[in-house]
Each structure stands twice: as structure tokens, then as C-alpha cells.
């Protein structure tokens, strides 16, 4: 359930928010809501930041270039062993643990990213296989 909240912002902040919203093709109110939600998440999970990409906005581990969903998928691929995943990804164990902690709080969101990636990989493989079959005729 959403509840109204009145917030007073200075003119410079309103102007900057408007410019950012325009670039993001969002209403300023929507962008402000996103900033609040993401800011709260980053306060709760200091090693997580958010980034835009072709597939959308997602949680990313600071300083690694790795999305949280990628780390979690790797942990799963390593039988749930965070140390093995850290070695495979060549990142510090503490970063993998930070991703796992974030996943615990936002499991549905991360599972959607993993599912979307798995689906895209399956579609890409099917397209490649169809191409291979067509070339061999």
C-alpha cells in the first residue's frame, strides 16, 4: 500500500530532479520514489549500488562490475559454496556474502533476473542450433 508523504526540496534539487527524470523518461515523482527506495537499500546493504543497463535497472556489487543476480547464480552453480563462488568470480568472499545478504532481503527480485537470464540463454542456444541446422543442409 502506498501512502502520501510530503517532502520539501529546495529549488536547485527540484530542477536537478526534473532534469534527471526527463533523461530517464520518468515523472519526477516516480524518480524520487526510486531514489528513496534505492537509497534505503544502499543504506541497509552498503556494498550494493544500482545501475541501468539494456535489460533494466538492477542491483550490482560495488567495485566488481557484477550484478547481484550473477553472483547468486554462481553461488548456486557451486552448490551454495560462497568460497568457491568467490574463487570462480575472482572477488573477495565478503563481496559474495554481501550479495547473499541482499538476496535474502530481495529474493523474488533476484530470482526474476536469474530466470530472465536463463530464458535468454535458452533462446540464444535455440537460435544458434537452428542456424547450425540450416547451414548443414
What tags apply to this protein structure?
two-stranded antiparallel sheet; extended; 2 strands; 137 residues; mainly alpha
Can you walk through the features of this model?
The chain has 137 residues and is mainly alpha-helical. It has six helices and two strands. The chain has a two-stranded antiparallel sheet. α1 (11-24) crosses α2, α3 crosses α4 (82-89) and α3 (68-77) packs across α5. The longest helix is centred in the C-terminal third of the chain and has 29 residues, at 107-135. The chain is extended. The model has no long low-confidence stretch (mean pLDDT 95).
Rounded to the nearest angstrom, the distance between the terminal CA atoms is: 58 Å
Average residue pLDDT: 95
Major beta sheet, strand line-up: 1-2
Spatial shape? extended
* Structure class: mainly alpha
The amount of helix comes to 55-70%
Query: How do the SSEs run, as a string of H and E?
Result: HHEEHHHH
**Largest sheet, strands/sense/barrel:** 2 strands, antiparallel
Count of DSSP-assigned helices: 6
Summarize the helices and strands and which ones pair or pack.
Elements: H1 11-24, H2 28-44, E1 48-51, E2 58-61, H3 68-77, H4 82-89, H5 93-105, H6 107-135
Antiparallel strand pairs: 1-2
Helix pairs in contact: 1-2, 3-4, 3-5, 3-6, 4-5, 5-6
Amino acid at each position: 500500500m502506498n501512502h502520501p508523504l510530503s517532502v520539501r526540496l529546495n529549488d536547485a534539487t527540484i530542477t536537478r530532479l526534473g532534469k534527471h527524470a526527463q533523461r530517464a523518461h520518468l515523472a519526477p515523482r516516480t524518480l524520487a520514489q526510486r531514489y528513496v527506495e534505492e537509497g534505503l537499500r544502499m543504506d541497509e546493504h552498503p556494498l550494493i549500488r544500482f545501475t541501468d543497463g539494456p535489460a533494466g535497472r538492477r542491483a550490482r556489487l560495488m567495485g566488481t562490475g557484477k550484478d547481484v543476480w550473477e553472483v547468486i547464480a554462481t553461488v548456486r552453480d557451486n552448490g551454495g559454496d560462497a568460497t568457491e563462488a568467490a574463487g570462480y568470480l575472482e572477488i573477495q568472499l565478503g563481496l559474495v556474502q554481501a550479495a547473499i545478504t541482499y538476496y535474502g532481503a530481495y529474493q523474488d527480485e533476484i530470482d526474476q533476473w536469474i530466470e530472465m537470464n536463463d530464458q535468454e540463454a535458452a533462446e540464444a542456444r535455440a537460435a544458434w542450433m537452428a542456424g547450425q541446422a540450416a547451414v548443414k543442409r
